[in-house]
Amino acid sequence: MNNGGRLLAVVTGASSGIGFELAKCAAERGYDLIVAADKPMKDSVATLTAMGAQVDAVEADLATEDGVNALYSAIARRPVDALLANAGHGLGHAFLDQDWQDIRHVIDTNVTGTLLLVHKVARDMRARGQGQILITGSIAGLMPGTYQAAYNGSKAFLDSFAFALRAELKDTGVTVTCLMPGATETDFFERADMLDTKVGAGKKQPASEVARSGFEAMLKGEAEVVTGWNNKLKAAISRIVPSSMMAEQHRKEAAPGTAHKS
Hints:
single chain, 262 residues, alpha/beta, seven-stranded parallel beta sheet, two-stranded parallel ribbon, 10 helices
């Protein structure tokens, strides 16, 4: 039974950016929170607590099985009403010039760790016959990611996985929503070493807008939400333009040094 009848939301990647804004959306709606990230979350927890939520923080590397298990151990004490699987990492530059361990970390964080956590939590939800899951995919998953090959590939996996899992959970009382943002105002491009690219230096959608759109779509049980009209247009174009053309367009946006080209 939930504490005082309050709902519980689990948010990964909650130290900043979209994850932090998702956690704020949950706090505003009266959820208690378990937040997870791979770095300290003191300031984030203080903000969320001030909003009236009971907050537990788990610092763990969700690219590892040990990290996911540590988080699951913390959340197993209460039924999870909403899982917002948002943790992820980006990586810029040419695939062959990247360090393999960096590539592996992107895949293990975005794909392996996410699937392991969803596998554990969604089983519990299905057994109870209720729950909502939001998976942060990306419109990047709809196009070949020249100079972001591993990242876009990981997001293509998540986009596909979210829709498949949603279909498998039909009529179980558990819904899955895929949040598909475009370029967002977070520290993503700095961490991915992409500040010298056109997309990294360009205008981006506020993380608060992206999170609110995703959270509302999850509450409604919608299948997907592409945030922002510009991103909706890009998503539509990706479905009709040949992949070779999309790959070339992505090169112009994501190649190192393109921030200084018109």
